[in-house]
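Protocol step 4 of 6: structure prediction from sequence.
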Amino acid sequence: MRISAGSLAYLAVLLAWVCNVCAQTRAHLSPATLSGTSWQLVRFLGSDDKTLMPGERAKYTVAFGSDGSVSVRIDCNRGRGSWKSGGPNQLRFGPLALTRAMCPPAPLNERIPKDWASVRSYTFQNGHLFLSLMANGGIYEFEPLRETETPVGTDRNSAASLENTDWKLTRLGKTAVTVAPLQREPHLLLNSETHRVSGSGGCNGLTGGYELNGKELSFSQMATTMMACPEGMDLERAFLNGLEKARVWKVTGHKLELFDASGNPVASFEARDVK
């Protein structure tokens, strides 16, 4: 049977199209690099064959920045560190700076920070990312993070959420906040599961409760530790007074604003990249 030149040309084009689709599919399923990718945890498989699975995958995430930075979420806490790959499938993480909100007890909340420095290699399989620990310590399996679940600290332009975001104080009323070189940054984190707020006033740690009803927000039973700092005490008192007056909240992008009952601004924040 003879095949016409036109048919051969058509088959060549069809074959090229199929190969191109296959190549794109492989690239989608198995990224060539970690840079710019974001993942959520599926499970941890220990060397003893015991498996730990998160109650909610989107609460355990890792995002690899193109600049060598890495952003993580471990339940109600957020963290930031660095990553590098010295060769094919090699991976090392630098020290992880993590917020210290009191999340509900969960085995993975303690395990992940302890295992962080022990990650030595990675591989892609069927679109999933697998991180292996040294000395056969276990394997973490991740799946791609959906766009709507992008964590704060990544390169994407998603808006931060009021709860479970670490908010750094930037203004009190209409006055910009200036922090001394050795002073802690005043910040807040609202835990959606416990309805507790934690953070720092700039000198002392603070904690308390909050009530959230739509755009209405109020803080209650705020308490602080009792340290006396050489700088920042006036700022801390003004910060706490502002929280007492807060009644309405508004998030725009990565900025949070709090207003009193009359609509006057009492405090402004920005989503904090932990250092």
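Step 5 (inspection) to follow. Helices lie at 5-29, 107-115, 233-245.
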